[in-house]
Amino acid sequence: MSSINPNNIDGTYPIAGQDNDSQGFRDNFTNIKNNFTFAYNELVDLESKVVLKSALDGTTISNDMSYAQLISPQLLKSVETVNNLGSKTGSFTINWADAHFQYYTTTGDTTLAFSGWPASALWTKLQLQITTDTANRTVTFPSAVSVNLSNISGASGQVVTLPTAGVYVFELTSYDNGTTIAIQDLLRNYDTTIQGYQLSKPTGNIGIAMNQDTNRLHIAPTGTAPVSFYTSVTLPNVTLDGTVVTISSNVAVQYNRTVSGWGIYSVDSGANTAISAGSSISFLLSTSENKWFKVG
What is the dihedral of CA 222, 226, 228, 230, to 10 degrees? Predict the structure, then answer.
């Protein structure tokens, strides 16, 4: 509340046509000076605390509210700051305070750390866009990224494999100063059954890793491939319970127990069998058992 009091100044003093006590002048002058002092102090206080559209004369704008509450605002055309991290490979740190949307392009596998989160008990988010330059780039998240990471497609421990060249966007959130960070995949629906296929055309014995977005692998040997040959297949890195993938071949394939899974998901010991020419086998993922089972 303002300390300025315009009512303590007698606007009718001095009174014309009579002697006027000099004390009245002194009272008016004192009250005027006091009100100027109050006004000065209050203006200085406002300048240090108010939110401004532009800088006042002789100052630079800050508008740092230090996490003070802004209650019941109606926002229109609000935006957030963007930070281009450039081309990246290896280990580097992303500072939340630089922007709430940050992005980089890979030139190699990357290992991330995060800093600058706000104080505990304040929830915040950071959206991170990663553009990969080639297939199967890996992103290693710090151990603090512990909530929902296992449900991200391509995750094995703290490492997420991005299966194809392209754009991926993750949202990271924290309410305890970055001690615990939750993650969501904003572009890929990892709760939807995969539908793509992958074609392999080997010329001999080979190891094949199924792409993450495929549920069918077809092997069509060419050139000098033997009539019957050995191969190993790594099933796709998915986490949706009940996912079924199929492997088929134009020629007989001897697996010799070399079908395997990603991360914690293994293939049941009785599931690895050979494929005769023109036939296929299928595998079902059981997340409760952490296993792929042969189902056809």
Answer: -90
Q: Which residues of 84-98 are buried (b: 16+ CB within 10 A; e: fewer)?
A: ebeebeeeeebebee
* CA neighbor of 164 nearest in space, from 138, 135, 189: 135
Put simply, whether the predicted model's pTM sits higher than 0.90 gets the answer no
In this structure, what are the phi and psi dihedrals at residue 27, rounded to the nearest 5 degrees? -65, -45
Domain ranges of the chain: 1-66, 82-185, 196-294
Q: pLDDT 10s per residue in the chain (296 long)? A: 888 988 888 888 888 888 888 898 898 899 999 999 999 998 888 887 888 888 888 888 888 888 888 899 999 999 999 999 999 999 999 999 999 999 999 999 999 999 999 988 899 999 999 999 998 899 999 999 999 888 787 888 899 988 888 999 999 999 999 999 999 998 875 444 456 788 887 776 777 788 777 788 888 777 655 555 667 788 887 778 888 888 888 777 665 446 777 777 888 776 666 777 778 888 888 888 888 888 87
> Which three-class secondary structure string do you get for the chain?
CCCCCHHHCCCCCCCCCCCCCHHHHHHHHHHHHHHHHHHHHHHHHHHHHCCCCCCCCCCCCCCCCCCCCCCCCCCCCCCCCEEEEEEEEEEEEEEHHHCCEEEEEEEEEEEEEEECCCCCCCCEEEEEEEEECCCCEEEECCCCEEECHHHCCCEECCEEEECCCEEEEEEEEECCCCCCEEEEECCCCCCCCCCEEEEECCCCCEEEECCCCEEEEEECCCCCCCCEEEEEEECCCCCCCCCEEEEEECCEEECCCCEECCCCCEECCCCCCCECCCCEEEEEEECCCCEEEECC
